[in-house]
Amino acid sequence: MTEPERRPRPRAFRLDGEQIVPPKSARPASARPQEAERAQPSMVEAQIDVFALEAETPRDFVEEEKAIEAAQKRGVLRSMLVSWGGLFVSALAGLLSLAGGMWLTNLVEDLFAHSALLGTVGLALAGAALVAALAMLAKEIVAIARQNRVARLHIALAEARRRDDIKAAREHVKELCKLYEDRPETGRARALVLEFSQQIIDGRDLVDLAERHIAHPLDAQARREIADASKRVSIVTTVSPRALLDVLFVAAQAIRLMRRIAEIYGGRPGMLGFFKLARSVGAHLAITGGLAIGDSILQQVVGHGIAAKLSAKLGEGVLNGLLTARVGLSAMAVCRPMPFSAEKPPGVADVAPFLFGDRSGG
User: Fold this and answer.
1) CB 203 within 8 A of CB 168
2) Which tens digits make up the pLDDT trace of 205-225?
3) CA–CA distance from 249 to each of 177, 232, 320, 329 (Å)?
4) Are 280 and 75 a contacting pair, CB within 8 Å?
5) Burial class (CB in 10 A: 0-12, 13-18, 19+), 268
6) What is the pTM of this model?
7) Nearest-CA neighbor of 143 among 278, 10, 267?
8) Can you tell me which residues the record assigns to a coiled coil (predicted)?
9) Is 16 helix (H, G, I), strand (E, B) or coil?
């Protein structure tokens, strides 16, 4: 029996996944650098197209945001000292303070001349009044600083969303969460937004997420306040016998509504802060022409036949209710710490549909 022929052994090879890698000796030397180049993973950084972002931004959003920022700069963010009016008020306040100090000094001296006990009581009361005045002044300064913080945060978040800047969006969203850290009802939303801010997300999407979860519940409260104020004004104007009472009540409701909306969004204006807020609201009404773009109030009124069907007094009530709603919407736009981007800004028909005969919303 002959010895079986020896078969050649198979050449050794190595398995890498699903690819067969031949031995190093079998690979041509010229191909090795190219293969090594191909084996290295390449990383391509995404470039932000600024022109595409501008094209994606709705024109109405840009125009509304310009109006809001211009109104904030004319009122809330306006320095009271860098103007002739501010200088006049400051100088007049200084003169009145000096006059009050002189009068108080003479009063205390007269009390001491009459009786040591009366002088001591007068001095103690003067000290208490001075401490209270300083506390009120400090409170006003803190309130104005908080208003400025909210207004600057609004502008910063709008800019971060426009540029799709994730770094700026994270920074300002954290500041937004810090602004409402003393509001327990926003705790869950703040935790969710902060969790998402640490993940891979676009700056624009992060701002929209913060708006939906943090600003949306506050918007609902503000809309309820506007609806209630508009309803009160329309009813009282309809039943009021005197025009002077109408004017006083409408003014009082407008003041209360502006203060309440500022408190909802964290502004908490004092006396001086309210003047700045009222200036911003007036500027926003003037810039937008007194009526919000797209509301078409006159068309809705004519369409419902209010002018023809209702009495003159009831028509005045509806008109005053519309104006009160517009004041509330302007205050809402100015006091909001972030722009309307993920959601459409509400109109008069959205917050006060009962003024147009739609009772489903009222």
Assistant:
1) yes
2) 999 999 999 999 999 999 999
3) 37, 9, 10, 19
4) yes
5) middle
6) 0.72
7) 267
8) none
9) strand
Reading the block at residue 296, the tokens are 């078409």
d(CA 28, CA 246): 96
Report the sign of the C-alpha dihedral through residues 346, 349, 353, 358, in that order: negative
H-only helix segments in 75-115: 84-114
Question: 275 with 328: CB under 8 angstroms?
Answer: no
What is the residue type of 256?
Answer: R
Alpha-carbon span 227 to 321, nearest angstrom: 9
- CA torsion 358-250-280-145 (nearest 10°) is -110
CA dist 182 and 178 (Å) reads 8
Asked if 193 contacts 214 with a C-beta cutoff of 8 angstroms, the reply is yes
14: β partners? 21
Cβ pair 282, 307 in contact under 8 A: no
**Residue (of 217, 262, 216, 77) closest to 151 by Cα position:** 77
For the chain, state the CA radius of gyration: 33
Residue 265: Cβ-neighbour burial (10 angstroms; 0-12, 13-18, 19+)? buried
Neighbours of 215 (CB within 10 A): 25
Cα–chain center distance at 238:
34
Asked if 267 and 273 count as a contact pair (C-beta separation under 8 A), the reply is: yes
| pLDDT tens profile 244-296 | 888 899 999 999 999 999 999 988 888 888 888 988 898 888 887 644 444 44
Helix (H) or strand (E) holding 15: strand 14-16
Residue with tokens 């180049």: 37
Cα(351)–Cα(45) distance, rounded to whole angstroms? 45
222 token code pair: 């503000």
3-state secondary structure of 200: coil
Q: Annotate 284-301 with b (16+ C-beta within 10 A) or e (fewer).
A: bbebbeebbeebebeebb
- Tokens for 139, please give them: 């409170």
Q: How many CA atoms lie within 13 A of 154 on its CB side?
A: 31
Handedness of CA 42, 45, 49, 52 (dihedral sign): positive
